[in-house]
Amino acid sequence: MKRMDGFPNQTKRQQLRQSFNGSFVISCLLTALALVWVAVSLLLISNDMYKWTAAAIAASLFVTAVIVYIKRSESLSFQNYHTAIVETLLRSDAVPLAVLDKKGMFMEMNEASSRTLGYHRSELLGEPIDRIVDPSSRSLLNETFESALQGETKQININITHGSGFPLELQVVCSPMMQEDEVVGTVIISQDLSDRKRNVERIRYMAYYDDMTGLPNRTLFQMKLTETLARAKEEERVVGICYLDLDRFKLVNASFGREFGDILLMQVAERLNRDFSDNDFAARMEGDEFALLYCNLQSEKHLLELSRQLLKAIEEPYELSGFPLHITASIGLVTNQDENDDSYSMIKKADMALVKVKESGKNDCMLYSDSWSNSSLERLTLQHEMYRAIQRCEFVLHYQPQYDLGSGTMVGVEALVRWNHPQRGMIPPGSFIPLAEESGMIVQIGDWVLEEACRQNKAWQEAGLPSIPVSVNLSIRQFVQNDLASKVSDVLTRTGLDPKYLDLEITESMTMDVSHVSRCLLDLTELGVNISVDDFGTGYSSFHYLKNFPIDRLKIDRSFVRDIQQDPNDAEIVAAIIAMAHNLNIQVIAEGVETEGQMEFLRKHKCDEMQGFFWSPPVSSDNIEQMLTPGYV
């Protein structure tokens, strides 16, 4: 092939003008460029593999155009030239192409066009194009066709009826087909817009909606909130946000896999949609965090009431792939009481309220307070002071008595850590335990609590007081340690405490990693210590593990005890837990007992033990010594 050094010189151009019709050349080049445009446009809407395919198509078509130009410059006859370009394009299966005569009848079409239109070529050759064009597009197509017969190239969108009967939108480039000085027909290149429109709609959907749950995402939530705040300001309406986070959701993913967690998120999303009015708005913000926008509240109290209803809805049992699951949530609340608030600041405040709930023990809701503005700095300061507190031995243990519901005798104590801060005074666990867990310092604190509780219990026994077990809570960071049993054994050896007087409390959610739990609990029970499940009924698996793990005692969570006299559901749950545990020869203790009515209900249903403010709050070791002394009333 000859090298092309540039455009033909003047003499050559004159010869070419005499041999060929220039308008046909322009038409062919426009057609080729149109093909390139179609291919390149596909790059914008397709996946990576298709992008490479489209790029290859565009390149091959461009080469075809260059070859045609070179052939022309070598003075091929017009007929050969015409045949070459038409046959090349028709043989190409890259894009749909058809040739119409001057009457609009199909003269030829390639396989790509046949597939796009949904007809075999034999069904359309010799047939008018109007046969497949929707009546709404015929006028536009006829105008474009007439323009092509006048030598113009145009691009339009038309609707046709696919061979299978469904409507189809096409983008069409209609160019004149020239033979010497005469337009002999038109060349039509088409592109199915349905896929592109679906992709555009998909992209738009993904920009504003969460793909997994179908809920609006953070972007759309902020847009909706901005719009709602503007209207609420004009109409003087109260607007509120519930910022919701599932408690211990990461443990679900870690124990059962993300697929299991995704199913849970979808079911939670369904409940949020189920319990919402048309005027309100729910969104998935990220991970296991959801936001709910209430557009027409009566007051902050109204928002609190709605959030408590929301907590109850989330707490309803789940069924995931045949597996029963119970989960709770924490909710941070904020309203538009500050007229300077925008969507960003309101979401931030709701998130801060959520953090406060998490720090206070989860499974609750809380309204934002302006006094929290410096909470981040406060957290960092407290975390630093906590590190020093470990070194300076500022932590102390208080003990809450546990009583036999039949005899009223003290049968045990639970060790509860407190921080005796030199400037702040006694800091309750809800204010520093979440920070300790977050920073990892909970392991050091937990190790100290275990040793101090065992040491103190042995000291009471050596003082001649009745021997009772002491309960110690294990954090999840402690429980996942491979050497936990070895650590406990070392503590028992150092303190001299008989293992039967140590009760280790784990939370229900810690039992999800079955293989680790089985090994760990077996090692601990071989030491002779007792195992209790704390906060029973609020975790993820509830009853399924009780038959398989060496559990000695269940502790009914205070959230069920609190309303047993008012809420029939809670009363039934508590009664069922007691009956089920006794059938498995497991002792039951209820925590958070604050009224005589609660105590009588538990006694009536044969609950074994109780602890709570009704008989005694957590007290110092000296107070426990007095309470254990014979004759103490």
UniProtKB/TrEMBL annotation:
Domain of life: Bacteria
Membrane-crossing residue ranges in chain numbering: 20-46, 52-70
Domain PAS: 82-152
Pfam family for this entry, one: GGDEF
InterPro entries per the UniProt record, alphabetical: Biofilm_reg_signaling, EAL_dom, EAL_sf, GGDEF_dom, Nucleotide_cyclase, PAS, PAS-like_dom_sf, Rev_trsase/Diguanyl_cyclase
SMART domains membership: EAL, GGDEF, PAS
Keywords linked to the UniProt accession: Membrane, Transmembrane, Transmembrane helix
Domain GGDEF span(s) in chain numbering: 237-370
Residue ranges constituting the EAL domain according to the UniProt record: 379-632
Protein name per its UniProtKB record: Diguanylate cyclase (GGDEF)-like protein/PAS domain S-box-containing protein
Origin species: Paenibacillus endophyticus
